Amino acid sequence: MNTISIIIAIYNRKDELFELLNSLSHQTDNDFEIIIVDDGSVINLRPTAELFHERLKIEFFRKENSGPGLSRNYGAKRTKNDWLVFVDSDVIVEKDYIENIKKNLAEIPCDAFGGADKAHKGFNLMQKAISYSMTSVFTTGGIRGSKKAVTKFQPRSFNMGVRKSAFEKVGGFSEMRIGEDPDLSMKLWENAFTTAFFDNIGVYHKRRVDFGKFSKQVYQFGCARPILNQRHPKYVKISFAFPSFFLIGYILGFIEYFFFQQGLILGFYGLYTFLIFFHALYQTKNISIAAMAIISTYIQMFSYGYGFLKSWILLNIFRQKPEDAFPSHFHKF
Predict the structure, then answer these.
(1) What distances in angstroms separate CA 189 from CA 53, 101, 161, one per listed residue?
(2) Where would I find the Glycosyltransferase 2-like domain in this sequence (predicted)?
(3) DSSP three-state, residue 296
(4) Which of 63, 108, 61, 79 is nearest to 168 (CA)?
(5) Number of Cβ within a 10 Å radius of residue 199
(6) Which has the closest alpha carbon to 201: 318, 28, 327?
(7) Mean pLDDT of successive 10-residue segments in the chain (333 residues)?
(8) For 142, which of 149, 180, 187, 261 could close a Cys bridge (C-beta 3.0–4.6 Å)?
(9) Contact 228, 186 (CB under 8 A)
(10) What are the residues facing 91 on neighbouring strands?
(11) Measuring CA to CA, which residue among 242, 301, 248, 240 is closest to residue 273?
(12) What is the pLDDT of residues 105-162, one digit of tens each?
């Protein structure tokens, strides 16, 4: 029997917590428990959770701030069921989310699983543009949005399930504040555990609501990747560095244009821009979202690429320890 505990690590985000719990309260299968871990929020989240006590089996815990990974570990230790399902606090799930998880677990042997994230019809245009950038085959390779896009799926914590025994075997999430979920996935692989993609458990992921916050977020993701490469060298791919090549190529394109009056490199970026626009237009059927998708895509590529390049130089050329180069990426015990 596959029993499920949903773990929500949250910092502030009162409105998002209400929306997530509301979506969980309408499940076609209501046989699950919810563990909410308040990671030192500056506002009181308990009253929001208490609104759903009659409809959901909720346990609420509050602790000092340590970042999402260690807060999820805290919640995992307090669960009663066989499977741990982690969702970010800024997602909404469909009413058959739990039902479909159980159906998949009965049919697909695995030790961990994940699903896609997508944009809800109620999201604003910017959120939909950012969602496109984070899930498109022309940006991330579709690793967050499509089963067909990957050969070995790496679950992410916005929508991730792990067998409790496997989670405990690998020690749960690490002390990393950024990149803790791919770190966990690779630890599972290194211990011969298997992962799977479930294509019918997608969640609606709000992400960041403006380009500035989005840029900061993907920059941090870029910084984390070389750290993960050091930890798990077996799973390094040249494609991880593609956004850095994209950034360097763009700079070289301007040098070529201004100093040599040639536009061959920038011509490639022009073609890429048209590709993004028309693909986003085809996907979203909205010209405004398609136009904004160009902006969000370049922000994603440049910010991630800069973060990756900076991190790679600090770790591999200057030989800094990750904890010294990026102290904010790690929890200090």
Answers:
(1) 37, 21, 14
(2) 5-169
(3) helix
(4) 79
(5) 12
(6) 28
(7) 95 96 98 98 98 97 95 98 97 97 97 91 91 90 52 88 98 96 97 96 83 95 98 96 98 95 95 98 97 97 98 98 96 75
(8) 149
(9) yes
(10) 205
(11) 301
(12) 999 999 999 999 888 888 999 999 999 999 998 998 655 545 544 457 899 999 999 9
DSSP 109-168: --SEEE--EE--TTS-HHHHHHHHHHH-TTTTTTTTT-GGG-SS----TTEEEEEHHHHH
Which structure tokens are listed for 248?
Answer: 């360097």
Q: Can you spell out the DSSP letters for 206-270? A: ---SSHHHHHHHHHHHHHHHHHHHHH-GGG--GGGGHHHHHHHHHHHHHHHHHHH---HHHHHHH
Residues 45-56: tens digit of each pLDDT: 999 999 999 999
DSSP state, residue 13: -
Q: How are strands ordered across the β-sheet holding 91-93? A: 91-93, 203-205, 117-118
Q: Are 198 and 101 in contact (CB under 8 A)?
A: yes
3-state helix, strand, coil in the chain (%, to 5): 50, 15, 35
Structural domains of the chain, with CATH: 4-115+155-208 (3.90.550.10), 124-142+210-333 (no CATH)
How is residue 247 written in tokens? 């950034």
The helix/strand count (H/E) of the chain reads as 12, 10
Q: What is the pTM of this model?
A: 0.92
